[in-house]
Amino acid sequence: MENISFTDKVKIAEKLNQLGFELLEDKKTQITEQIKTVIINLVHYTKEPLKINLSSFLSERIHLEYPQLSALFSELENQTIAKYFIAQKVEKAKEMLTYRELTLSEIAYQLNYSSVAHLSTQFKQVTGLTPSTYKNLLLANRKSLDEV
Predict the structure, then answer these.
(1) Beta carbons of 93 and 131 less than 8 angstroms apart
(2) pLDDT tens digits, the chain, 148 residues: what are they?
(3) First and final CA of the chain: distance in angstroms?
């Protein structure tokens, strides 16, 4: 992008914004977005449980040492990679609870938690609610078909 004029960069950025994208010029921002993409894909779209720890997984995928990834991410996002990973897992748990097709034990297993208690603890830390309370609130806010 160094050989493109400022005016052309602005035009490209505007077109990308219209399409819901953004132009990433900064290398730190690019790496941070890569980390987010890898974590989102891992949590939301991968069925296989992670067989190595997250730090090794990220280092292998992004081809940088984890301490460097961690420092960059924390600097730009004001949170650790671990907290971002937990937040994504909790969002996935919320989605699964919304569909009410799986038990809490099944959700914990699918999200690679060691136990339901571990999932519940992290869920409450992020949302302020237990998974059961969250599920009950969803049920209370649902309307029956004849009320719609």
Answers:
(1) yes
(2) 456 776 777 777 778 778 887 766 678 888 999 999 999 999 988 877 767 789 999 999 999 999 999 999 999 899 999 999 999 999 999 999 988 888 999 999 889 898 999 999 999 999 999 998 998 887 666 554 455 4
(3) 52
CA distance 122 to 59: 24
Q: Is-contact 32 80, C-beta < 8 A?
A: no
pTM (two decimals): 0.77
Which pair of structure tokens corresponds to residue 119? 């999932």
Which residue reads 């004001």 in tokens?
Answer: 78
Residue 28 corresponds to which tokens in the numbers above? 């730190």
Q: How far apart are CA 128 and CA 24, in angstroms?
A: 34
Query: Which one, of 83, 68, 3, 57, lies nearest residue 31 by Cα?
Result: 68
The C-alpha angle with vertex 139 and arms to 133 and 141, in degrees rounded to 5, equals 105
Half-sphere exposure of 139 (CA within 13 A, CB side): 8
**Virtual CA dihedral for 116, 118, 120, 125, nearest 10 degrees?**
-170
